[in-house]
Amino acid sequence: MLWTASQALRRFSSSSHYYQNKLKLAIIGQSQFGQEVYTSLRKQGHKVVGVFTVPDKDGKADPLAVAAEKDGTPVFKFPRWRVKGKAIPEVVDAYKAVGAQLNVMPFCSQFIPMSVIDQPKHGSIIYHPSILPLHRGASAINWTLIHGDKKAGFTVFWADDGLDTGPILLQRECAVESNDTVDSLYNRFLYPEGIKAMVEAVQLIADGKAPRIPQTEEGASYEGIQKKSNAKVDLAQPAEAIHNWIRGHDKVPGAWTVIGGQSVTLYGSSMLGGAVPVGQPLELEGVTQPGLVTKSGLVLYGTDGKAVLVKNLQFEDGKMIPASKYFSSGESCSVELNEEELKIAADIKNIWKGILSNVPAIEDTTDFFKAGAASMDVVRLVEEVKQKCPDIQLQNEDVYMATTFQGFMQLLVRKLRGEDQEDELLVNYVTKDVNNMTVKMPNQCFINGRFEDAESGKTYDTINPMDGSVICKVSYASVGDVDRAVAAAKEAYDNGPWGRMNPRDRGSLLYRLADLMEEHQEELATIETMDSGAVYTLALKTHVGMSIQTFRYFAGWCDKIQGKTIPINQARPNRNLTFTKKEPLGVCAIVIPWNYPLMMLAWKSAACLAAGNTLVLKPAQVTPLTALKFAELSAKAGIPKGVINILPGSGGMVGQRLSEHPDIRKLGFTGSTPIGKQIMKSCAVSNLKKVSLELGGKSPLIIFSDCDMDKAVRMGMSSVFFNKGENCIAAGRLFVEESIHDQFISRVVDEIKKMKIGDPLDRSTDHGPQNHKAHLDKLLEYCEVGLKEGATLVYGGRQVDRPGFFMEPTVFTNVEDHMFIAKEESFGPVMVVSKFQDGDVEGVLRRANDTEYGLASGVFTRDINKAMYVSERLEAGTVFVNTYNKTDVASPFGGFKQSGFGKDLGEETRRSSPQKIPLTRPLC
């Protein structure tokens, strides 16, 4: 869906980046950091003559190798450079053959021989994530935190044969914040600024200005890589030291302590300011003051009386839980009951005895259902308990969640103590008075039923495309946030009520969510307009209106997902059959685009939720606000916490982690074909998770001379300019029969001149701004390429002279089949028109199908036989006949070929076979 420039387009603009004093470089290293350094150096005009990285792991190449191979740069994947301390001759010879003038080593984990280090004219430079000479060694970031350093930073230094002891070229530093983690330091400073510094260092060398500052031994230190066995936290020390130890080992290898006789790893540490929340004591090894399990997490007390808050715990079997759920996780001993609670327990045991009369004695391990209880017994148990404890709020579902007597009593005790009460949803709204209303917008990550800042504390600006102004700052999720969200979704799926509740009750909650969306539809449409640039009336009707319809449609499916009985070979004397049952998959990930932010969320998530799955959703980085408002409404609708999690952030970080995460069972993606391919590969390599992809398009629209011209002009314009052309099924190329071509173009241009371009909140506006500036720039470049290739620009092709990201509706004619704009999607308001000879049905079909995409298509003709013939032969998932852009929640939607696979909407959502969906109006 998202248009990306091809290599042909990039060639038009690349020459301006080349300046004097450029070097031939060898890049030796790995990781995403290495890939970014490589890409940045090439953009600056340096020639990378070879990339030396690590071999593929589990069939997956390192990101540095992926980028270099895509560019055609020579890539070498050596498992090692030395054997028993001696360089491998054939490896060194392969390196020397590339003729590098400088080795650039970003995060190189291999031992490189000095014959390679010293080979180039300018030697070798290395990035190191510490302010050398402090923390020489591979775990520098960890030790920066463990030691409680107030400053962190990095060094680019000249390589030598010592342990990070070579002369310094440049250094950068930043303050360490009180709750910084390895991830937050890396993402906030060490990663982005480190890339810039590597590029700067190379240019200093090229210009002959690079210093060589000898490292002093004063203040030098070397700490090795920390092992799990050495990472046990000493709780008998001040709180800040405890906090530093935990955050310095998060995520690898993980600081641990002993709780309940087993090793438990602690993650997500922060200093606790203010009053300590109410909680339940937890005995810990090696301390005099017990910890405290609270709704916010596990509180640990230092010897100085100050406290540390730990968010997550991981047990020896690998299971991770929120620390706040320790006593309900099944991993701990029973809650100790006071005298009054023991009397209640005796009364409850008598109730169990009365119902389970066949059981000799009620033990802690007695299971209510395994002992023979049925659904009516559940009702009886709940009602009898309410008589004994009239103030308790107990539901039938609670019995299903705690089936043993001990588990049931634990649940009752927590209810009696008030520990089960849901936290009030706290939202730090950003408010704006706009469109004759006050809109209230959440702007934080939504994880496990709560709005919270990203783990790193990092935020970014989301921009109003109408004028380029900042709407608000939004949390920028990290890999750690993804892991927490997936853990919450998995917990909600494995142990929460969502998958266990009656499907009809689940449908009721989705209906309630749809009702709340309808109550807030004007607010949602206003937010959508500000964040995406959609014309308000279209946002109200389609972006929001169809989202509401989608949730209502799939709410009705909740109790209609059925299996089958299948007769099989009758082997006498038995008569055999099999039956199938449709079950949810588990945790699903959804990555949505920026053109229809709320509607794509609805299309992907409604069916997912109806089936009983839980989800983690990443909205597009440039349009996160309606997704976060949706999260708020879902909580108010009563969707259990953990079922829906929303993570704004980058695709490269959040989206990539979702595609790789082993606990996710399916990923749905709408976006560009190249990114779709990368996601599919990551999903396959990680855990073979299922994938559905709705990708790029270059949808053909064929207009025959016997069409209804009024309708063809009106619908033809809509096929291109609907939603500013930011439409996955937009007609990427129109084929107009020669005899009506000039008339059609003339009428289209007349109608374009009548279109009002302006404020999308103005009810009379026809055409709003493009979604973001980078996209507008690509569209303008797309038009420049069309002109250079010889197409005729009939109208538009320019940015509108006003603030914001507005582009003129554009029309190209005389577009030949070989041209870039004939083959590549613009994803904007660009009408690309080609003639075809009168009566040449077969010829125009060949041209229309000569594309790797197959999302949608259309035909205009009064001849029903021609319409059916053409629609059957167009290779696309949807064929519009005498109409365009008409989709419905009950009609399946998806593509052929490189437009992806899998279906959104309709009953076909649960199938993946290719299917063409003709959408027609009466032919006249």
Automatic annotation (TrEMBL):
Its EC number is 1.5.1.6. Residues 901-924 are annotated as: Disordered. (6R)-10-formyltetrahydrofolate binds at Q110, F111, I112, D164. NADP(+) binds at residues 592-594, 618-621, 651-656, 671-672, 778, 825-827. GO terms for cellular component: cytoplasm. The keyword Nucleotide-binding does not apply. InterPro entries: 10_FTHF_DH (IPR011407), ACP-like_sf (IPR036736), Ald_DH/histidinol_DH (IPR016161), Ald_DH_C (IPR016163), Ald_DH_CS_CYS (IPR016160), Ald_DH_CS_GLU (IPR029510), Ald_DH_N (IPR016162), Aldehyde_DH_dom (IPR015590). Keywords: NADP, One-carbon metabolism, Oxidoreductase, Phosphopantetheine, Phosphoprotein. Residues 339-416 form the Carrier domain. This is 10-formyltetrahydrofolate dehydrogenase. GO terms for molecular function: formyltetrahydrofolate dehydrogenase activity; oxidoreductase activity, acting on the aldehyde or oxo group of donors, NAD or NADP as acceptor. It is an enzyme of class 1 (oxidoreductase). It comes from the Eukaryota. The record marks D164 as: Essential for catalytic activity. The active site is at H128 (proton donor), E694 (proton acceptor), E694, C728 (proton donor). Pfam families: Aldedh, Formyl_trans_C, Formyl_trans_N, PP-binding. GO terms for biological process: 10-formyltetrahydrofolate catabolic process; one-carbon metabolic process. It catalyses: (6R)-10-formyltetrahydrofolate + NADP(+) + H2O = (6S)-5,6,7,8-tetrahydrofolate + CO2 + NADPH + H(+). In the N-terminal section; belongs to the GART family. Belongs to the aldehyde dehydrogenase family.
